[in-house]
Every structure is written in structure tokens, then in C-alpha cells.
Amino acid sequence: MSTQAPSLLAGTFTELMPHDGIELREGYAEIGDQRLHYVEAGHGPLVVLLHGFPEFWFGWRLQIEPLAAAGFRVVAPDTRGYNLSSKPEGFEAYGVDLLAADIRGLIGQLGAESASLVGHDWGGTIAWTTAMNHPEVVDRLAILNAAHPRRLSEGLHHPSQLRKSWYFFFFAAPGLPEEVVQARDWHFFRHFLEDANPPYTPEEIERYVEAWSQPGAAAGMINYYRASVRQSQKAAVAKLRPLAAPTLVIWGERDSYLGSDLAEPKREDVPNLDRVERLPDASHWVHHDEAERVNQLLIDFFA
């Protein structure tokens, strides 16, 4: 683990975050042949925040300092392929088992034996998989608008969910998506964030554009979908196993990308489900839309 000068945290990144007198620290973890960039704050039990598509660590800007102020050591990495983390070539490097192994390695590199995980969207898929593949490193699990893999697989058999997930299949095409997403100043990626309420500010959107513009980032982000679509769904479902970790699901009901019926995991898959907390006025970007409510739910659950 190496810590760099906090150049990325200077200026507008920190200006756009709430301040409770909590110091933000920046670092890199070397995990095999991958290098994960992360931002860290606070001291205490480790909580790892896993962002989704098309965000990066900054997607947790409204959670990092409140969780740190509540007595946790909070680490928000850029997952593989995003922003300042490694961006290996080829979709084969973005299988979800590899992404989960990154998080297991990150927890060890941070000097911890285990952590509580929070995952949104793709970060939720990585969190589900880490808890299944590496249960020894996951104390508690909080999932935000990310269906359990079995529920998502079942959902994709229904036309209503297939319509919502059209971009899975667009991203599977070779080459073309990288050109499309960069056109018109990243209009394609910007579109995904438009459901947020309140809207993301122009300054916040510019931080996302900066992350998307990192060399190789567009391909890395899209390769998550290529790897997902190309895997055998039958084999993926066969690998599922029950989760040991106590689990909280937080779900924004106005999600344009996932049907609300996907919020409830099956009890045999998640026997220690604490509950599914549905927020009726929140979009897919629940941690942005209702940050104070989400923060309190997380603090109470992890405490």
C-alpha cells in the first residue's frame, strides 16, 4: 500500500464534499498485477464503499465523511477499470470473480482481516460476489439498488427488465460503444445520471467527465458489461451459495434500470437478511437522492 500526495483531493473534489473536519487521505493498493486507487477517511472498524456505473469513488462523497464521523474507517476505491485504478485490456479481465478478488485483496492491503461492505449498482454486484466467494473478509453487507445475482438472472428472462437493461447488450458490441459514449462531451454517460433528484450539479458532472476521460477508462467501464453478457448464466447461477453476512438492502423505488421486484433476495440465498428498506421517492441514485436517510441506515446497521 502506498500513499500519494493528495493532488486529486485538492480543489474542486473536496469543495464539492461536505466537511465535518474529517481529513481525506488518498492511497494506492497493489493487489497482484492490479493497482487500486482509493480515498480514505476516519478511524475504527473498516467500511469499504463500492461505487457503480458510471461513477467512481466520488460517488460516495455524501457518505464518506458522515460515516467517518460516526467512528468508522471509510475507504472508497475506484474499482478496476475506473478513474485512477488499473485498466487491463480485454473483457476477460473484468469477470466478477476477479473484481471480488480485488476487494478481498484490498481489505488485506489495508491491514484489516475483514470489513463491512457497501455496494451500489455494479459495486453491489461486486459486494454480493465478495460475500459469497470470500465470506471470511465480510462482516456485514449493505446493498443499494443492486439485485442479487439470482434475482437479476431471473429478471433478465422478462421483457420488462430486458427493456430496462438494453444497454447491457449495446455495451457488448466490440469497439463501437467506446466511440459512442465519448461523443457530444460524454452525453451517453451523462444520460444515466439524469434521473437523480436533486440533479447532479454541473460541477459534480465535470468531476465525472474528468474520471471518464482517464486513458482507458471508457473501455474498462464498458468491459464490465461485456464480461457479464459473455459468461454462461447457467454456470454463474450454479456457483451461487448462501451468504453468511448480515445483509441490509436499501432500494430507491424510482429506479429506471432495475424493477422494484428485484429488490428482495431469496431467503435461501440471503438467510441473514436484516430487511429491505424501500425509499419510495429515490431514484437509482439513492445514495445521492436521500443521502441523510441512507447514511443513518448504514450507521445504525454497522453499529
Structure notes:
Helices cover 39% and strands 20% of the residues. The chain is built from 13 helices and nine strands. Strand 2 (24-31) and strand 3 form a beta hairpin. Helix 3 (96-109) crosses helix 4 (122-133). It is globular. Mean pLDDT is 92; it is low at 2-7.
What structural class should be given to the helix and strand makeup?
alpha/beta
Gyration radius, rounded: 18 Å
Beta-strand percentage range: 15-25%
Q: Percent helix among the residues?
A: 25-40%
Based on CA inertia axes, which overall geometry fits? globular
Q: In whole angstroms, how far apart are the ends?
A: 27 Å
Report the uncertain regions.
Answer: 2-7
Largest sheet: 9 strands, mixed
As laid out across the biggest beta sheet, the strand order is: 1-2-3-5-4-6-7-8-9
The overall pLDDT, averaged over residues, is 92
Number of helices: 13
Number of strands: 9
Order of helices and strands: EHEEEHEHEHEHHHHHHHEEHH
